[in-house]
Design a protein that fits this description.
This protein is an alpha+beta fold. It has four helices and 13 strands. Strands 1, 2, 3, 4, 5, 6, 7, 8, 9, 10, 11, 12 and 13 form a 13-stranded antiparallel sheet that branches. The longest helix has 28 residues. It is globular, with a radius of gyration of 21 Å. The two termini are 29 Å apart.
């Protein structure tokens, strides 16, 4: 789903999901899991939470995020990506729009391009997309038990790495409850996170944490992330081709409650100033919208494209 290549800030802010709740104000219906107990998250007089509270909180947050990820696999949806490339004066010089059907096939999330610039694909391009989907189906249908096991083990390893990252965020920031606001007509806590001076990262990915600050809005009834706003505080570089995100790059996300069971992305925007290797800088405004979440019935049968009758 998150195709913008913004995994770091999204991971960072995804774990700021439930800060600053007053224990006495939590509804009795706000359940976390069958085994998890609600941590004491009452802030002190200055509106801050202790490191012990942060550790308790992140265990809950990790469980919630993992549960949302699992339930997303039961849904199909439509994703619309709009990219505006800017010139040196900040004016739009070109725009590209792509719309996808997104689905889960044999445990793999697959995107099928259905529109370009809000117009349906021509017959040739549509056929290429169907061929791409067919290749995924064939690959998964013929996957050996050994390959399937390796893939699932890798996925679990990746999830565990994410959990470790989540826990380290508690040491990287000072958090402050700044108030409450309405998001999508629902009341949410507003929490700010600022880099903690002297933070020493344990994980490779965590070294970037001090380069971001952010604000999150947490739905008070469901204890879920409703909205987030992340800002890059300094230039960061990574990757084989030395991609650089510059100071001022910004990422925003709004989520929505679907079927009274899961919280999923509704709207994402990003303003990015990037330099790739020795290429010149380029500025891009990105916007993603998500709609038509539909639950994929467990009884549905996945068939080859050629087996579908008109």
């Amino acid at each position: 789903m998150r195709r913008l290549g913004l995994a770091l800030p999204f991971m960072l802010l995804a774990v700021l999901m439930a800060f600053g709740q007053d224990q006495s104000a939590l509804p009795a219906s706000a359940t976390l899991s069958r085994t998890a107990s609600l941590p004491d998250l009452k802030p002190d007089a200055s509106g801050k939470l202790s490191q012990e509270q942060m550790q308790q909180l992140f265990r809950v947050v990790a469980d919630k995020d993992l549960e949302n990820d699992k339930r997303l696999r039961d849904y199909t949806y439509v994703e619309r990506d709009e990219e505006h490339k800017l010139d040196g004066k900040g004016e739009v010089k070109s725009t590209e729009v792509k719309t996808y059907d997104v689905m889960e096939l044999y445990g793999e999330q697959v995107q099928r391009l259905i529109e370009k610039d809000d117009k349906p694909l021509d017959q040739k391009d549509a056929a290429k997309e169907e061929e791409k989907i067919q290749k995924v189906i064939d690959k998964r249908k013929n996957e050996s038990e050994g390959d399937r096991k390796k893939r699932e083990e890798k996925e679990e390893k990746d999830r565990e790495e994410s959990r470790k990252f989540v826990r380290e965020v508690a040491d990287a920031y000072n958090f402050t409850l700044v108030g409450t606001e309405l998001v999508g007509g629902r009341e949410a806590w507003v929490i700010e996170g600022e880099p903690r001076p002297g933070f020493v990262p344990k994980l490779k990915e965590s070294k970037y944490l001090s380069k971001f600050r952010g604000r999150v809005w947490i739905d008070k009834n469901d204890l879920q992330l409703a909205k987030m706003d992340v800002e890059c505080l300094d230039t960061i570089s990574w990757g084989l081709f030395l991609a650089r995100f510059h100071k001022g790059s910004r990422f925003m996300l709004e989520q929505t409650r679907v079927n009274d069971e899961v919280w999923l992305p509704l709207h994402v925007t990003a303003k990015i100033d990037v330099r790739l290797a020795l290429l010149k800088n380029f500025d891009v405004n990105l916007e993603q919208t998500y709609r038509d979440y539909k639950k994929f019935r467990a009884t549905a049968k996945i068939v080859s494209v050629g087996d579908v009758k008109p």
